[in-house]
Amino acid sequence: MTEDDIVDEELLTIGAFAARSRLSAKALRLYDRLGLLAPAYVDAVSGYRYYRAGQVERARLVALLRQLDMPLARIAEVVGAEGDEAAERLSAYWADVEARVAGQRTLAAYLRGRLSGRSFEMYEDFAVETVDVPARVVITESRHTLADELPAWIGASLGRLEAAARACGGVTGAPFVVYHAEVSMESDGPAESCVPVADEAAARAWVAEHGGPWATRVRLEPAARLAYTRITKARVAHPQILAAFEAVEQWVAREGLEAAGPCREVYFADWGAAGAEDPVCDVAFPVRHP
Fold first, then answer.
1. Do 222 and 154 share a structural domain?
2. Are residues 44 and 148 located together in one domain of the fold?
3. I need a surface site. Which of 82, 143, 258, 279 has the fewest CB within 10 A?
4. Cα–Cα distance for residue pair 263/244, rounded to 1 Å
């Protein structure tokens, strides 16, 4: 391509295009490497980049999306779609942002209470009770996972286990997730998804034949007294749920009890049908008298 061709096609140098699009030349080079905004022409000798004027709108869209702190991979999804699909992708991203901010707001309020010595006020929102549960046969999956990966894994693993339970005499109780070590953005557990089933022999036969890909196993969950607090769907997300766990821990200490096993979440409601303010989960600790 010659300079005359460049003029005929109204191509812009990277500097001129950067000025029109409100992006720096450095950002344009990065977006080129990532496939977000490739130049219309690159001179083979000089390496100079040239852009069409018609690319300005896409460039400005990328710049605006970056102002939403949207990761580059998500930006690629939005600008690669069209019309309603692009708008839906943006809406999905923003819903994730609002959920994260809501969680951070709750955590910030809790931390303000803790730092000011008023953390007990946060616990007043949580009514703690106890319940005795019998010994049960459960089929389980375990995984090391960080907090941001946890919701997707819980949904998928419980779905697999509930499907498997049909061959194990059926589900006999609410599914639950046991945390054998801390799960956070820095610590990866492990966590264990559990579904109570009716027929231990059938469960062991099913696991022997089908359980390999997901490391499914069968075990006996001992009888226990659980101290628990019931929370809504909105409060299940991390880090909102941390206040519920600590509220139960504080209650256990005040009652002169001690933990008799790892903490857990018991999912007793239809997650998909529940609204944000519907109770869906018990945050629980097995407890005993010292």
1. yes
2. no
3. 82
4. 11
